[in-house]
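Question (not urgent): is this output format expected?
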Amino acid sequence: MIIKHLSLKNRTSGIIKNKISDKCNIFVADKIKKSRKAKSSTFFSEKMKFSPDISFNYELREVQARVFYKKQRLDLHRPLHPTILNKLLEDLRIEWTYNSNNIEGNTLTLAETKLVLQEGITIGGKKLREHFEVINHHKAISYLEEIVRPGRMMETADMLNLHEYILRNIIDEYAGRFRPGMVRIVGANFVPPNAQKVPSFLEDLISYINENTHGFDAVTLATLFHHRFVWIHPFIDGNGRTVRLAMNLILMSHGYPPAFILTQDRKKYFKALNDANNGDYDKLLLMMFQAVERTLNIYLNSIGGDYEDFEPMESIAREDEVPYSAEYLSLLARKGRIDAYKEGKVWLTTKSAIEAYRKNKLK
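Got this back:
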């Protein structure tokens, strides 16, 4: 069941009308209604109780400035050579699929994920569901890439379609459908809203994002969407995978490469979401900006030229002219204080990034 998209004219005013199945009480996306006018931000805040107070501390401003600068550098090199771009996307799709699934408990390794996708191999000792999770997520990325374009508005239908891909051949009766009742999230510090409110809450969130009356940048906007979507928890299963795909609809429509949370940061990620439930977005914003910066670094590294190579922190810290230990550099990286990104569990940075931090500290 793939929901057709609204025309550009009607995107910000569409609403999914839902019907309830007599037998299983499942909300089903049924009809796009075109007559509803866009609501004001005040209405969103009152109805959704969603009026985030976003302020950027020094660390966030540092990483935000780096991301904006790198995005500008990448734009100067666009369009990228097709061979370079295709290779980048091929690798990122596999890595993205592995990390998003592993965060949710899928036990296939990165190498096994690659085999399933590229060779069609079934991994012995692994559940059939885990193979479908890999295949489904990869197909959902392809769908996302098909619909994204500059300035594209988000639609409720997008969420339902992405979710339909995620749960296909796993829980078909709920794929692309809102949850019928309450759900509990183990380890979370909140209870998702009543199922009857899910369609309107999600529609209001999407309108809030599309209108962006506060003028948030794309990464901040994607962070707010990510958190609120998780709070709404519109589906019985697959919410995490769906939102980590959907947030990229915001990023990619603004010209950013896809970004994703690494499975090594799983605990930190869940903690950041819980903090956001209490109104503190700092950690989640930092994670999102770092995720975007990581992909920007990967893109810029692939271009070459005068862009400095990133090296493991332990290697750089051994050099005599570097006054910091690998442990201290890792701490700075986790806080967003230096230009760095992760490959697996290894932090990478540059000598110029360390020197820039040292000079800034002396001011």
